[in-house]
Amino acid sequence: MRHVEPLAEAVRALRTGARTPTEYVERALDRAAEIEPTIESLVPEPDRRERVLETTTSLAETSPDPASRPPLFGVPVGVKDIVHVDGMETRAGSALPPEALSGPEGPAIERLRAAGAIVLAKTVTTEFAYFSPGPTRNPLDPERTPGGSSSGSAAAVAAGLCPVALGTQTVGSVIRPAAFCGVVGFKPTRDRIPTDGVIPLSRSVDHVGVFTQDTAGLPLVAAILCDGWRTLPAPSGKPTLGVPTGPYLEQASRVALDAFDRHLDTLAAAGYEVVRVDAFESIDGINARHNRLVAADAALAHDAWYREYGDRYAPETRELIETGHSVSAADIAAGRRGREDLRRRLTALMDDHGIDCWIAPAAPGPAPRGIDSTGDPVMNLPWTHAGLPTVTVPASRTDEGLPLGVQCAGRFGTDEDVIAWSHGIAAAFG
Fold it and tell me: How far is CA 125 from each of CA 42, 94, 146, rounded to the nearest angstrom?
């Protein structure tokens, strides 16, 4: 069974009538029936086919004229199961009763529906988008993790079950699994996509993000989801790329760093100027500050649930919440101030060195073997802490055929530019 077409191709076919929504959705459902027993990316739903086809039929009846079809007409979307969808349970990868977690859907889902998209399925998440993994396996090697916490969303897009899926990122939960699964991931500028309707892990740094199969689909869905999206002309030149050398980069494995050197050579050969700059000299402090802030926020967000259902939480999440109870008010304030301080420092470095876009390994290495862990998000943490728009671009593969990606991070609020630049960077890697 063939994968569903990537988002840009699907949008063209569905809006022009070259393919009907029912044909496309049935292919997605058939693909899921074929591959799901192996990868388990979707939250089980007994009546999924009936629900999805009923929605699809209704959509087709309301938009019979191709000229009036909305921008994502008939596109099936995976939705990470910490995002509320009306009419569907939210379990958040947890053992808590779904009625305790229920809530109204937020702007992200409302915008997708208004654009004609169809919710194909809830996708598997680690418990409450933290570190306790679900059953999902990497479609490229089922013996390896797809990454997390947006495990199911990354795997579903990589396996061709849907052309786009929603994830969230609090440390590295979009950018890293996109790299592990060989797809494109987009984490916007903080708050550019509203987080209403999402079960929080850390209200201070949570982001809603997106997975697509290639960069061509990114602007189509980002324009729907992001507040104040600007349609800009295609960039006339190549961005100057900044490499953050020093202790931050040294957190990556030798495999990742050797590949990253080759990636930079490829980009230089394609005409990109690459500037190496010492950055994140206090990366240990940034990491610690971010993790304390996340723990404190998690303890606050989960206070009522944890008091009633604490014994149902996974050990990893319990440890996070208990740690959060011990974080001082001064540490919380320092963590929140640190986001703006880091953003200002990175912006100043960009100004001083003529950098348009930062580039770095998207993960410490390829997807680790086993599914008991989702891998280390340390390479993503500072960009998330600063709230900068970031895109994963697949770059190469290891000798074992495992994907390696780069992440490109731009100035705060320049999501349109970062996505536009990602097309050329992806093309350079072929």
Answer: 9, 9, 11
The full set of domain ranges for the chain reads 7-225, 241-283+331-428, 287-329
Which residue of the set 41, 149, 153, 204 is catalytic?
149
Q: Is the pLDDT of residue 1 over 90?
A: no
Residue type, 335: G
Determine whether 202 is an active site residue: no
Please state, in angstroms and rounded to a whole number, the distance separating the CA atoms of residues 396 and 62: 43
Alpha helix (H) residue ranges in 17-136:
21-39, 48-62, 98-101, 107-114
* Candidate CATH numbers 3.40.50.2300, 3.90.10.10, 3.60.15.10, 3.90.1300.10; the one for domain 241-283+331-428: 3.90.1300.10
Sign, CA torsion 198/199/203/206: negative
User: Cβ neighbours of residue 57 under 8 Å, at least 6 residues apart?
Assistant: 22
Topology of domain 7-225, CATH: Amidase signature (AS) enzymes (3.90.1300)
* Distance in angstroms (rounded) separating the CA atoms of residues 225 and 117: 12
**From 173, 202, 204, 422, active-site residue:** 173
pLDDT digits (tens, 9 = 90+) for 39-52: 999 999 999 999 99
DSSP string, 189-256: STTSS--TTB--S-TTT-EEEEEESSGGGHHHHHHHHSTT----PPPSSPPPEEEEETTTGGGS-HHH
pLDDT of residue 80: 99
Q: Over the stretch 327-367, which tens digit does the pLDDT of each residue have?
A: 999 999 999 999 999 999 999 999 999 999 999 999 999 99
Instruction: Tell me the mean pLDDT in the region 193-206.
Output: 98
Assess whether 282 carries a catalytic annotation. Answer: no
Do 241-283+331-428 and 7-225 have the same topology in CATH? yes
Total length of the chain: 430
149 flagged as catalytic: yes
The residues facing 424 across adjacent strands are none
